[in-house]
Amino acid sequence: MTRTEIVEKVNAVLAEEFEVELDVFTPDANIKETLSLDSLSLVDLVAIIQYTYKVKVPVSDLPKIQTFNNLYDYIEEHLPEE
């Protein structure tokens, strides 16, 4: 999966799940602020990433994922081999 495919799929899935427009997704935007995430919806976000990409996101890694670019990087780095 290419970086472009990851970005497009993440944005599409999150836009639908959190009912936001695609134009709010910019690489340096803060995820929590952009998606208005509280602690419960942050768990939803992790579950979506784990289900969609088969990428485990331990709680200890959450502080590293602040922006959408961080999220794309994390997924790209942790995608299972096909």
Question: Residue share in helices?
Answer: 55-70%
Mean pLDDT: 93
Number of DSSP helical runs = 4
Largest sheet: none
Radius of gyration computed on alpha carbons: 12 Å
Distance between the termini: 9 Å
Structural class: mainly alpha
Which overall shape is indicated by the principal axes computed on the Cα atoms?
A: globular
Order of helices and strands: HHHH
Number of strands: 0
Portion in beta strands: under 5%
Low-pLDDT windows of residues: none
Helices and strands, with pairings:
Layout: H1 3-18, H2 31-35, H3 39-53, H4 68-78
Helix pairs in contact: 1-4
Gist?
The chain is mostly helical and 82 residues long.
Describe the protein's architecture and organization:
This protein is an all-alpha fold. The protein is built from four helices and no strands. Helix 1 (3-18) packs across helix 4. The model has no long low-confidence stretch (mean pLDDT 93).
